[in-house]
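Deliverable D2.4 — example input (structure tokens):
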């Protein structure tokens, strides 16, 4: 089972996708970017750290807690809200560069998006 950490946009998370219901639905039905996994378990969700996007400090804390609580995280997804914020809301995060930094520092794959709703 793939343990997934979803990074969400702190500004539009509960405006665009109230309570992240779309991410949970897509994971349960293995739709969108979750389709590639045999089994999916959302282990954690965290905001990006708000603008200007303090993603790495947030991820570091989440990954430390996940390790302490013995929760395996196999992949990190940028939530669809992050992708939308980047394309339409002038999000200052360079997602490609951030993905490279995350992969380098965590050794975990980074996936762009969660659902297509």
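Example output (designed residues):
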């Amino acid at each position: 089972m793939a343990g997934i950490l979803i990074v969400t946009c702190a500004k539009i998370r509960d405006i665009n996708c109230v309570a992240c219901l779309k991410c949970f639905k897509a994971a349960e039905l293995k739709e969108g970017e979750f389709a590639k996994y045999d089994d999916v378990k959302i282990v954690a969700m965290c905001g990006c750290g708000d603008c200007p996007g303090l993603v790495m400090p947030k991820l570091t804390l989440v990954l430390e807690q996940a390790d302490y609580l013995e929760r395996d995280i196999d992949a990190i997804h940028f939530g669809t809200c992050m992708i939308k914020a980047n394309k339409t809301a002038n999000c200052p995060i360079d997602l490609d560069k951030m993905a490279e930094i995350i992969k380098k520092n965590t050794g975990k794959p980074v996936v762009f998006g969660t659902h297509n709703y």
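The chain has five helices and four strands.
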